[in-house]
Amino acid sequence: MTRLSPGGASTPYLREYRPVTGIAAAGVMATVRNATKAVEEIVRRPYSIEFEYGDTPEDGVRVYVAEWPDCFAAGNTREQAIAELEDALRELAGYRLRKGLPIPEPVGTLSGKVLLRMPKKLHQDAERRATAEGVSLNTWLTTAIARELGPATGSTQRRRKKTGRRR
Q: Distance of CA 160 to CAs 12, 104, 156, Å?
């Protein structure tokens, strides 16, 4: 082999290649196994998946991970879309781990219960409205919050026909 020296003249050189063996090889393999194990643990988390179906079967299925805005895939069938999504999630999880970026937690870790403190007058008014509408205070408050939040907008708005949990 030859290489160019800083002055431009070519000079022969010998590069020695040694295979990684022994303790060094074991350390490299352990690191790879640990990274793979971490990625697989992330993929197995109970993330929320959202499905978007085309108008016709030929349009296929798009699938999104709600907690990972940049994780989505598509397929001709629901099963194919999920398989593609798992591959995409593996790639993204590996990338985030390598770069030290945060890994989103599943929304499923939220219980759906909220302790809400409010002024007594507001509590009384809400209770009266719920009673007048013939619903529980919990149902009335949930509806009021949903009304205030409104429909999803922009890139997060999707025609959702079915939402499921990954297992």
A: 65, 22, 11
CA angle 92, 98, 101 (to 5 degrees): 70
* Tokens 């929304």 found at: 107
Nearest one of 57, 50, 54, 120 to 85, comparing CA atoms? 50
Please give the sequence-ordered ranges of beta strands (E in DSSP) within 45-130, or none if there are none: 48-53, 61-65, 68-75
What letter would DSSP give residue 64? E
Helix (H) or strand (E) holding 4: strand 2-4
Digit-coded pLDDT (tens) for 68-127: 888 999 999 889 999 999 999 999 999 999 999 999 988 866 677 888 899 999 999 999
Rounded CA separation 161/54 (Å):
10
CB atoms within 10 A of CB 75: 16
pLDDT in tens, 113-147: 888 899 999 999 999 999 999 999 999 998 888 88
Q: State whether residue 37 is helix, strand or coil.
A: helix
Q: Where are the domains of the chain?
A: 2-110, 120-149
Distance, in Å, from the CA atom of 45 to the CA atom of 47, rounded to the nearest integer, reads 6
Fold assignment, 2-110: Double Stranded RNA Binding Domain (3.30.160)
